[in-house]
Amino acid sequence: MSNATTTNVSLTQKDADPITLTEIAVTKVAELIAAEGADEVLALRVSVKSGGCSGFNYDMFFDSEFADDDVLRDYSGVKVVVDAASAELLTGSTLDFSDTLQGAGFHITNPNATRTCGCGNSFS
Prior knowledge:
Layout: E1 5-6, E2 19-21, H1 23-36, E3 43-50, E4 56-63, E5 71-75, E6 78-82, H2 84-90, E7 93-100, E8 103-109, E9 122-123
Parallel strand pairs: 2-7, 3-6
Antiparallel strand pairs: 1-5, 3-4, 4-9, 5-6, 7-8
C-alpha cells in the first residue's frame, strides 16, 4: 500500500516511506484524532527512542509541531510524521492495528529489527 504522498520537502531517504499504515490502522488513527477534538492539525508521530530490553523502543503520539527535517506522509487524510533519525530505523516498516480477544492495539512490523523483546515494544 503506497498511496502516501509527500507533503514536506525534507526526506532523509529519497522517496522512501519510513512507515506505512494498513487500512485498519488508518481508520483507527483517524478515529483517535477525531476523538481528540483539537483545533490544530494533528499528525501521528512515530519515533524510535533509546531504551528497552533490546536497545530501542517505539513511541507514538499525536503532534501538531513539525521540524524541517521531519518526514511527513498522508494516508487518506491521516498525517504521519517521523523524525529524520527514526526514519532510518523505520524504513520499510508497517503499522497495523488489531482488536482481538487477547487485546487491542497497534503493532509495528520492522524489517530492520534484528532482535525483538518478548514485550513486542523493544528491538535492536
